[in-house]
Amino acid sequence: MRCAIVTGASAGIGLATARRFAAEGYRTINLSRRPCPAAEVQHLACDLGDPEFLSAVEAELSRHTDGATQLVLIHNAASMYNDSATSTASADLRRVFEVNLVAPNSLNRFAIPRMRPGSAILYVGSTLSEKAVPGSFSYVTSKHAMVGMMRATCQDLAGSGIHTACICPGFTDTEMLREHVGTESLGLVQRLSAFGRLIEPEEIAEMLFWSAGNPVINGAVLHANLGQIER
Fold first, then answer.
1. 3-class SS at 169?
2. pLDDT by residue (tens digit) across 166-183?
3. Among 18, 104, 145, 220, which is 20 to 30 Å from 154 by CA?
4. What pLDDT is attached to residue 190?
5. Which of 75, 81, 164 has its CA nearest to residue 124?
6. What is the DSSP string of 170-229?
């Protein structure tokens, strides 16, 4: 039995990814507050921003994952706000880190003891994992840290047969992007791609699915942005 855990699979990249793995016969589990609309995906309701979220779902999650011949853990859920280094309160930064960094660590600690060789831990980063723009302080900071977490995970799992990677999407047509930049700015964002369009969530899902089965990418940061035009 192959199993995939996807955080934030209620919409966007997470939903497309959960559907992609389920279509290949994986027992697929979503962890998020909102339910996953895909009937083939098992939804376990939890708030990843709650430091105790795992205790609420651990027994059920164990029931679904124990005995998996391959376990793929995909850290997709993220909080993103329009904020600044000059004004973000530490409590607000801590709240973003809880979802974007601490929850992945909690899930790693749950999943790694259950992972057999051939399993994978995949992180969904961003182009903002390696650069910055104004007005996205906490998100940029956490996505930079996510790359570090992935690389450290790779080193600490050496010899286990478990591989890691961080897939960094560019501008993807999701609720999060529309809320962050505003519908009126989508045309401008599209023009920042060398292909003049937004990325479809299914394109990132396909890259995540490929990454799960290819340990040669262990420790890699993979850019999935259609080639962004730098101005």
1. strand
2. 999 987 776 666 665 566
3. 18
4. 64
5. 75
6. -SB-SHHHHHHH-GGGHHHHHTTBTTSSPBPHHHHHHHHHHHHT-GGGTTEEEEESS-BP
